[in-house]
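User: Could you check the structure of this?
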Amino acid sequence: MFAVLLLILRYAFLFLLVFFIIMLVKWMVRDLQMDQGPSPSGPGGPLAKDIDGADIGRLVVISSSLGDLDCGQTFPIDTDIIIGRGEHSNVIIKDTFASNQHAQIFVKQGQYWLEDMGSTNGTFVNEVPVKEPVVLADGDRLRVGNVVFQFVRWGHEVGLYN
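Assistant: Sure, the predicted structure tokens are below.
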């Protein structure tokens, strides 16, 4: 009788040990996903997904002489956004070289497009002036005034350069 009871206790202990290890792994994975680097403009974690399950694009500040924008600051592009100096812009750049509504990023047929909105000093993609709407590719660098962003679509790390 004692041998049977000891066998049951061993199996119960083994079951609890396996259950504890599984829960520990789940907690670790969840913590790693949340520690992907919180952005000042939104929650941390992996890239958000849009309705179709595709990665949502984002703008990451890689160079800024302004106190308002820090290198590494992230702006998700989950809807059409306006970049400019005006208070109604989604990404506000308090730079004298930025217009109130400087540029617009919009989504059309699953692609992200950048359009200059008639700004005085121009919008640049990879240092090429934007004269008409252009499709953004992962890794493109956008310059508005004295601020340089990197467009990120697929979630790779962004190298921050000043």
